[in-house]
Structure formats: C-alpha cells, structure tokens
Known about the structure:
By secondary structure, the protein is of the alpha/beta class.
Amino acid sequence: MRQAAARTTIPDQQRASTGISGLDDILGGGLPANHLYLVEGTPGAGKTTLGLQFLRSGVQSGQTGLYITLSETGAELKTVAASHGWSLEGIEVFELVTDEGLSPAAEQSILHPAEIELGETTRGVMSAVERIKPRRVVFDSLSEMRLLAQNPLRYRRQVLALKSFFANVGCTVLLLDDRSAEHDDVQLHSIAHGVVRLEQVVDQYGPERRRLRLVKMRGIRFRGGEHDFNLETGGISVFPRLVAAEHRSSAEWAIVSTGTPALDQLMGGGLARGSNTLFSGPSGVGKTTTALACVRAALQRGERAVYYLFDEGLGSLLVRSRALGLAVDEYLESGQLRIDSLDPAEVSPGEFAHMVRAAVEDGQASAVVIDSLNAYLQAMTGEKHMLLQMHELLSYLNQQGVVTILILGLHGVLGDMNSDIDLSYLSDATLLFRFFEARGSLLKAVSMVKSRTSAHELTIREFRLGAGGVEVGEALTDFEGVLSGITSYKGQLPLLGDSDGAGA
C-alpha cells in the first residue's frame, strides 16, 4: 500500500506566482515554472491585465519580464498599467508591428505575404528573447499569428516551434488568445501545458459577471470548477470556489442565549453553535430586529459578529435599533460588530463567500447574519447553482462553529404564505413568525417549527417589539388558527398588550 501511495505522489515543482493570490490558491501555489500556458478569453475578459500582473510578480521576485505584443502598442500597455496604478519598470515591451513594418517600403508582391510575415514574426520573438533573456514572457496575441498563418498546419508548427524554443531557454510563458477562431482551438489546448479560460457574462441587469476556469493543468492538483473574479482598479481579484470539506475544524458544540429568556425557552435553550437558524415570516413582522437582538446578546458576551445587510439601509437599521433599546453603536465603533450594507446586484457569489471567510478566519466572527436571502438570491437568478453554493457556505460556517442566522421573507400578511426560494432543507432550525388577528388588532406570533440540535417547544407564543426590545409571551393556548392568521378565541388568556393597555 505504501508503494502504491508513493507512485501517486506528485513531485514538487518550482512554481511561478501569477501575482493573483486567489489564482495561486486554485493552482496550489502558482504555475509550474518553465512551461507554456494558454490564457484564453473574449476581448475585455482581463487577459492583458492578468499578463501584466504575472510579469510584475516576476519583477518583484527578481525575474526579468518580456511583453511581446502584436495587437497593442507599447503606449496602450502603459495606459492599461497606469489605470491600475502600476509601472512597467523592469518589464520590456517588444512591439512586433512598428511604423516601419507598416510603411510602403516594407511591402512586396513576389511571395505570399503570410509566408514572410509569419516567419518574420517567429524570428522576431526568438531574437527578442535571446537579447533580453527573460524568465517570464507574455505573448499577445495568438489571434494575430493565426491570421498570419492562414493555414492550421502552418499555425500549429509555429506554435510548436515557439514552445520548444521557450522550453530550451527556461521561460515561463503565457500565450494570450481572444478566442476569435470559429471553434475552440483544441489543438492549441493539447500543445499548452495548461489552459486558463476567462469568461464574462452580461445579465439583463447589473454589471457583467466574470468567471475563471482551469481547463487543464498538467502535473499538479488544482481546484476545478468555475471561480468568480473581479477586474477593477488595482488588477484582478480571484475568489476560489468554496469547498467546505477543505475547512474542517474541531469547534465545540454549545447552546447560546438569544438575549430573550422566553425565546430561549421556546427554542429549546437558544441558538446552537455550528448551526444555522432560518427566521421566516412576512415583511414587518420583526425578523430583522430579532436577529439584531441575538447579535447584541453575542456582543455582550464578548464575541465578534458580522451582519450582511442586503435589504435595508444601514441608517434606518441603526435608528430602529436605538428606538427599541437594542443600540449597537458602541460595538460598531470598537470594531466588535461589522455591518456590511451590500448591493446584491454588484456582489458575485464567490466574492460574498470570500467576504464571509475573511470575517470568520481573519475577523474572528462567531455570529453571522444574512439579511435577507430573498434579495441576495433573487438578484442572482443568472448565477449557476445558487442553492448549492449557499449549501457549501452554510456547511463551512457550521464547521467553523459559527452561529448563523438567515432571514427569509414570505409573501403576504395573513393566510397562506410562500416564498420564491425553498431553503427549509438547508436550515438546521426554523423560527416562524406570523401575524394574526385578535380583539380587532393585528398581533404577532412566533413558533419553532424545526430544530436538528435541541428539543424545542411545539407551542405558538405571542411576540412583539417594544421599547425594551423583543418580548415573547405565554403560549397562545386559548387561540386556534394563529398560523393561518384568522383566529378564534376560546378562553381568557391575557395578551402582552393587556398589561399596558396597548393593542399589540
């Protein structure tokens, strides 16, 4: 068995950092050095930026970089670099097409232009490499060479010649291709040591989404699948696809208080660490305020928390929290609590998972609230397998021992209610909020309908928000039809408002 294990062990290889931490993570440390790689993507996908980051990373480690361009001028490359706040110092830019090459004196008509131009292009590349002796090379772009070749066989031979030449001189090379061929260039895939594909998708609303995928990578283990990335000022940021199984921990199981004793009793003790609880109910019933009360209780225990706000504005949330005696301003100022107000149309699933990981691993957050899932998931209808991605994120949080609260709004106020999203199977516990009518007033009720972690009450309790925060009353034993919203009263049970004369 040991011999078999030894045969499957992949030997260590010298790596060349791409200059993009997320991409290096996907690759398990960077690109294996001294090989030729294909980076393909449509115009605007980010190929040039990736190439420049790759060369700049080499300069920082003392490696000479060469950018060979057939499609862009040196001035255009400097403009691209300047837009990111970069300098091309230490990077040699070699333009194969110059003003001299476009002059009338350079034209001839005896031989086919492609036969001469392709050979001159290849010789020009080799000459520049021999003169500069770079360790890293970016060749931009193969589409120009493909046009010069005009013949698939001639084109393949030239690429093979370049690959052999670069291997002999010890270069790590990125070949950029804009996928202008009518069909995917499978032959080119077979020549390259690895293939990185950049994609951008424009939905009906919002900015374009960008994804990265390693089509192949010889000799190393890498994280497959699609990975979200952003192209912004400062370069490319890649967010590796979250795999919960890679982040197992030995977090201790425990029950913590919600800050409301009666609610703890209803839930079978409170919130369980390493689990997620779904707060479900119609708009305005008190889900967000209850979640904020739970977060405040965690902060008072000395824990750190992060609240992701997709629906409500931060200002209105803070005003309401103060009015209900749940002010969290001091925790925000100290950094113990972070509230991130996010635009769901601007945040990709990969970026959001990256934010949550950073909050838990770097910020030491032990409580996380996502408010609400409706806005987050509905704004990303064009994304692939959103529920599976959410499942992976929740599994990761559970493994880290985090108390997670998910807020899900239901349609309607009374009667039958439903949601566009079914997350009941993902939640470890479900706290259900309802409006109901009684004594000519609109009242609220709360019940625990599911828990995988504790033995909870099966009762329905009255619930309200007041100056003292969250209040939970006795079980509504004298009422029938509370969950349907249309109740019938069969006793003398006092309600929360009876003591102060208020209706609700």
